[in-house]
Give the backbone structure.
Amino acid sequence: MNPIEFNTIDGFTTGHAQDPDAGTGCSVVICPAGAVSGVDVRGGAPGTRETDLLDPVNLVELVHAVFLSGGSAFGLDASAGIMAYLEEHDIGFDVPVGKVPIVAGAVLFDLVVGKSHIRPDKNMGYQACVQARSNRVLQGCIGAGTGACVGKIAGMDRAMKSGLGCHAVEVGDLQIGAMVAVNCLGDVIDPSSGRPVAGVLTPDKQRIGSTEEIMVRNWNQHKNPFVSNTTIGVILTNATLTKSKAKKLASMAHNGFARTLRPAHSMFDGDTIFTMGSGKIEADLSVVGLLAAQVMEQAVLNAIRYADAAHGLPCSGDIVG
């Protein structure tokens, strides 16, 4: 198994647009030929688009783009710009009067960072598609990760900055990668050491504490820290998938969240993973699934590793253990 650049997975291009001052942005993965896609939504506070369409019992087989966006529910507006770009480039589902692009996506809550009145919109979604032409691998405080942060159980005063991460590998001809915007309520753990790399700060802000301990200690207090936190991601592979396999692959990829997020899939998170298969090679789903969990795990860690301090929030490099 060899690491590869995320942007080399056959059949896909990736772009980002952001407003660093406002603390928000969006990311898009485009598959011009269409990808068989699935989704698994596990968090209790999701914000999504076209997830019902991805159900294996429904008609449309191919998706042309998946986006991840900040802005909470407002960020769904970015899809209009993605639709416009794809239509201009004759990409979409054939209908008698032209092409209808199939665009799925999810949003995260970043309104408490930067300027809440500025959110990803049609123009930002379009610009993310324009940037996809360069297909550069970018990580950290870019795209959907621009306003992402973690460790919010004790309020923003003790939260930390996170971002967007990517990781990809190849095994023989099989390619698989993950892109994720990490914006969880809780903490991020490095599974190799069991130590937190980002999360809720201790009251003196010198160390990373434990969100789970705080939650258990306050077990009978019904709090709503924010409307939504949410870690959202997408798995790309050149493997051939059916819609049923794509849905199962999304489910298996959530193991990467379970290994790194404490807690994962809470009622205050909208944790969602999409999958996209370009159908270039045949591969065993069990193998693709275990690799999906591994690349997602590393992508989550990269979202922390490449994030910079911003908007008054420290990054992992600022905190000692």
About this structure: The chain has one domain: 2-54+62-311. Residues 52 and 58 are 8 Å apart (CA to CA). DSSP finds five helices and 17 strands in the chain. The first helix runs from residue 78 to 88.
